[in-house]
Amino acid sequence: MMMENPFLMLIAGIVFIILVAIIFWPEKGIIPRRSKINKTNVRVLIEDALKHLYDCEYTNLTCTIHSVAGSLHISGNDAANLISKLEAMGLIKSSSDSLLLTPEGRSYALRVIRVHRLWERYLADETSISETEWHTIAEEKEHAISFEQANMLAAQLGNPIIDPHGDPIPSDTLQMPARRGIPLTSLKEGESATIIHIEDEPEEIYEQLVAEGLYPGVQVRMVESTTKRIRFSADSEECVLAPSFALNVTVVPIPKEEEMKEYLTLSKLKQGKEAKVVRISTVIRGQQRRRLMDFGIVPGTKITAELSSLGSDPVAYKIRGALVALRRNHTDHIFIEEV
Amino acid sequence: MNEKITQKGYSIIAEANMLRWEVGENFHDALMESIYADAQKIADKAVVMLGAEKKFGFDQTLDKIVTSKWLGFPLMFLTLAVVFWITIEGSNVPSSMLAALLVDTFHPALKTFAVNVSLPWWLSGVLIDGAYLAMAWVVAVMLPPMAIFFPLFTLLEDFGYLPRVAFNMDGLYRKVGAHGKQALTMSMGFGCNAAGVISTRIIDSPRERIIAIITNNFSLCNGRWPTQILIATIFIGAAFPAYLAGIISALAVVGIALLGIFFSLVTSWGLSKTILKGEASVFSLELPPYRPPRILQTLYTSLIDRTIFVLWRAVVFALPAGVVIWLVANIHIGDLSLAQHFISWSNPFGLLLGLNGVILLAYIIAVPANEIVIPTILMLTVMTLGIVDVSAGTGVMFELESEMLTKEILVAGGWTTLTGISLMLFSLLHNPCSTTLYTIYKETGSIKWTTVSALLPIAIGFAVCFFVTQIWRLIA
Fold first, then answer.
1. CB pairs below 8 Å between A and B: how many?
2. What angle (nearest 5°) sits at the alpha carbon of residue B147, between those of residues B104 and B451?
3. What gap in Å lies between CA B414 and CA B401, rounded to an integer?
4. What does the pLDDT look like over B99-149, one tens digit per residue?
């Protein structure tokens, strides 16, 4: 029987597999790249520019052609063209040194922001996509989903009011609350506060903040605040950040009389010991949070570390008479108080 | 007046909307907390627990043993091994009895009857040699092991041991993005993939459940064990001295099963990192208290829900496949049957994978059940070679008592040790049978996941067979 040269066949096989990988590889392959939305689309530019203007307004900064160009990654010329187009559409007006939104422009911006933040909330609650990707995906979705679809999504999610980074989601009538909180850098040594917002842009800074375990709901106590570095404890873990990074964290101080207590996490509970649940951190969200609460893991519940599996993760806990196994990535975010 | 009221209404709603930010989102949790607190208060007043402590003490001791460092794993493997041993040993006799009855007695009797009522040859061929024989084969090979394996498994589940296995295995499965309970659905897959797919209902997290469904096919099912054992005996065991042959071929089969577990883990990892990255994932695993198994109820439910249910689906799929098998072997275009045309056309491709055209065709037309792959291969080989005296007629599936004779026929069909090894690999790594595919569709309700479940293993199978074959030829 005729046989092809096995050596040549092997090479052909390897080449074939490499080709398939180049075409289909997730995110970097030819087909996944093709399906991404074209960023230079006019509608996308308009909506992004309006969002930028709204951001400036919300944070009391002055917005210029330069800042628009910088935020949209386009040239100053293109930005100027874009601005005049927006002015012609009656969405913005320019005064001597800054650009301002007209009421129509503001409501357009808020619609886009509502879609963006709802989508982030959806990704956080209902999927297992990691937090560093939420923003990028929502950046694309905000231009693709209609306002009506977004309202349906909101109803499904139970009309959430804040996105997973702590930003308020504009209501369906486009209302927004006043801005609250102070930057982490303004907190004085020895003061305690609760994080209410983590800025998700730029991505490099956000990734670092996520890696430090910072997210809305974490309680912090300032240890040392200098112009070089900010040292503080976040849910009992010590963190050190450069001030420029800490600026992206917004906190609300806790009044002195409700002095913050430091709690252990459930994962640190020794086998056979009993404790009382204090709270479930906000990183556990959506279905997983509901599941834990269904088991009766709510503040005040007594919980005993009963049994460790072969690899010591998961651990089985006795909760209200039932034996329930929990993984460490969840017990790390359940706070307890030993009794 | 009315307008004024409407105005007022809107401003109240707007006010309420603003207040939602003041209230924050914690009120959901607070509500839940207060419900539990109230329930606790009522229960403390009204409920008295008797004897709960003693029962819990026993459970605790047993739990300490089954999750202990030294005894946990050996106990698990021992339990599984015993279940398999009972299944294989216990199903030998009823299987051969059923085969004697349905294949060796009823089939000739039906043929005689057909001749007596002077049924046209093609009608008796389609109905008796095709549809009936395929169904008879599936029932004979499938029914006894399933009727033993499923009740045993259900008893272990009922007793409360299986959740502990999931608990022990979760560490490993977590690392590949899956759920500990997948260890159970995988074990169930060793009995039957269709039943394994149904059993993934115990996994309540959407992502992990789809992973378990897609990878279940990598569990070497009961329909494939006989193929593996036969081929290992005649092509691998035979290459060694007689006193080693038995153990070597047994090791080869176990090796294939372990390879299946390896692929199921690797594929789980790959799926959870790529196409299933975004699906929601929730972990929870309850360890229910141990309780004495309810034997009669278990027997009843596992026979009705699992055995009969799966068998019925298999029979429904085997009947038309039997018709197709008979037809491709008996419809001629020119001098050759449809089957022979396909075999000579696909043979070069088959050889690239270390297989041949006969095997490829057998896997296509025997898609309803892995049980009829070997009978189909034998039928097709004999037909292409033009041997007439071993089977009951052209296009009639058969099996041989003697392994030596089987080997002679296969070797005459051009089979080598490489063909044997490739067939063993391909038998593990190919699309699930149509019964399983239909079950996957029913369980997921999605064409997409059914397609992935069908194409992923076959792509892996082609790749593995191709590279093994080329490397083998390079070395040999």
1. 145
2. 90
3. 21
4. 889 888 888 888 888 888 888 888 888 888 888 888 888 888 888 888 888
What's chain A's Rg over C-alpha atoms?
25
Q: What is the tens place of the pLDDT at every residue in A247-273? A: 889 998 888 766 667 788 999 999 889
Instruction: Enumerate domains of chain A plus CATH numbers.
Output: 182-258 (2.30.30.90), 264-338 (2.30.30.90)
Q: Are B413 and B381 in contact (CB under 8 A)?
A: yes
Ranges of H-type helices in chain A: 6-24, 30-34, 42-58, 65-72, 76-88, 103-126, 131-144, 147-156, 203-211, 243-246, 286-294, 328-331
Distance separating alpha carbons of residues B39 and B42, to the nearest angstrom = 5
Q: Nearest chain B Cα to A167, which residue?
A: B21
Total number of residues shown for chain B: 476
SS3 for A237? strand
Give the residue from A309, A313, A317, A319 with the most B CB atoms within 10 Å of its CB, the best one to mutate.
Answer: A309
CA dihedral A155, A157, A160, A165 (to 10 degrees): -140
How many angstroms away from the CA of B29 is the closest CA of chain A? Answer: 8
Q: Which residue is it, tokens 């808020």?
A: A110
Distance CA A21, CA A24 (A): 5
